[in-house]
Amino acid sequence: MAHLTVDIGGRPGVNCRGFCEYCYFKHVKETRPFGCRHCPPYQVGCDYCSRSVREYYQGWKTLREVGEETLANLQLMTGDLDRVTISGGGDPSCYPEFRDLIELLSGMEVPLHIGYTSGKGFDEVGIADFLIDHGLSEVSFTVFSVDPRKRKRYMHDPTPEVSLRVLERLCGEIEVYGAAVVLPGVNDGKYLEDTCRWLEERGAKGLILMRFANTTRQGLILGNAPVIKGQRIQTPEEFRDLVTDLAERFSLKISGTPLWDPAIGSPFAIRNEPDLLDKLPRLERSATVISGSVAAPAIRAILDARGGGVRVMAADKEIACLITPEDLQALDPAELGDPVIIPGRAFVHDRVAAQILSRDGVQRTVFRGPEMLTADAETSMGMTRDGVLLMEMEGFSDLIRLINRYGRER
Fold it and tell me: Could you tell me the pTM of the whole model?
């Protein structure tokens, strides 16, 4: 079975009827390429870490361009197509040829999935039945709040009542996953409870809560912090407790990013599965593993359970895949062993990472770890617990094998 993603282009803030107040693409500045796993060996910067990270597009692709790209991608695929996902830098609901696009893709007679929409482009309720009739089977819909006044104020939705009626109709017919960035003092508390209740009563499958990020430490690496001056932010622990409380009180699946998925126990659900931990390879050598501050304690506990001898250092950046050269520069090289393993998706060039981590005159070899060790809520929302545990088993097995192959003798 094969999955096709249809990229319609579009620019955040431009092709979505304007930035939401909390959008982390607000204030994005031109930044030098960070470097990443895709860069050539002797060049810092590539399309991914200079353009894609900012979701930089010139604008919408025409329907003809989308059709031609889709046909070309179909010709390269092997296996039967089982799903088509519509994605882009702009909001699909605002795509100027949206109805024609849906009609074109529905001709493939496979389920359609809209990877993200705010619904701000839906100005008539009838679009819901059109989507249902043309094969839409799943949508991730940013709701923020079911209070139309809050949608209008913070999402700049010109027709919030219509958007909510479209969402309501979709909830009754297809798989709908709501999403909400939580702004403390704005859409939390009673407002968030009302949103959960509203989605639950209308049949939504789940709600992904996203902790509001407002600082570089939380992942705003594009010169765009703060997004909202003076806005209070939650600690990861406060946010995790909020998600836990709501998940216990409502029947629809509620999970959060960066923490956590109460139904599955992720990220790092394997910590509570001693039988599975015992199936991981044993650690035979030593190394230093660098991760983000949220993940580091869990990674340390899992590696300690497999024999220990590995130093796990937490960068100040909370999310491991958003670590940049500045985060490595802030680490004390005296605490580093050799070799050093950095997150697979960190925004650092391999050569630059080695230079920074060897700046005390001790030459250290740097390797990239697996791209994924666990699943965040946006990934786990559509997964089973067994699927998440399998992902973690594979990720940690690869990490331990990397340490055993290139690590130092104890």
Answer: 0.91
Query: Rounded to an integer, what distance in angstroms lies between the CA atom of residue 408 and that of residue 404?
Result: 8
**Residue 114 one-letter amino acid:** I
Q: CA 41 from chain center: how many Å?
A: 27
Tokens (6 digits) for 260: 């956590």
The span from the CA of 103 to the CA of 99, in Å, is: 6
In the chain, helix, strand, coil percent, each to 5? 35, 15, 50
Q: In the β-sheet with 112-117, what is the strand arrangement from edge to edge?
A: 2-7, 81-87, 112-117, 136-142, 175-182, 206-211, 253-257
* Short-list 277, 233, 241, CA closest to 262: 241
pLDDT > 90 fraction of the chain, expressed in percent and rounded: 85
Residues paired with residue 261 on neighbouring β-strands, in sequence order: 266
On the question of a cis peptide bond just before residue 226, with omega within 30 degrees of 0, the verdict is yes
Determine phi and psi for 7, rounding to 5 degrees: -95, 115
The mean pLDDT value for 131-143 works out to 97
**Cβ-based neighbours of 402, under 8 Å, separated by 6 or more:** 341, 367, 369, 370
Reduced to 3 states (helix: H, G, I; strand: E, B; else coil), residue 406 is helix
The DSSP H or E segment spanning 285 is none
Distance from C-alpha of 207 to C-alpha of 328, rounded to nearest angstrom:
35
CA-nearest of 301, 304, 281 to 402 is: 281
Q: Which residue has the tokens 């009542």?
A: 161
Task: Name the CA dihedral angle for 331, 334, 339, 343, rounded to a multiple of 10 degrees.
Answer: -10
User: Residues with Cβ < 8 Å from 365, sequence gap 6 or more?
Assistant: 338, 339, 340, 354, 406
Task: Read off the tokens for 176.
Answer: 């709908």
Domains of the chain are 2-257 (3.20.20.70), 269-406 (3.40.50)
Give the model confidence (pLDDT) of 5-27 as tens digits: 999 999 988 899 999 999 988 88
Residue corresponding to tokens 């060039």: 349
First vs last Cα of the chain: how many Å apart? 45
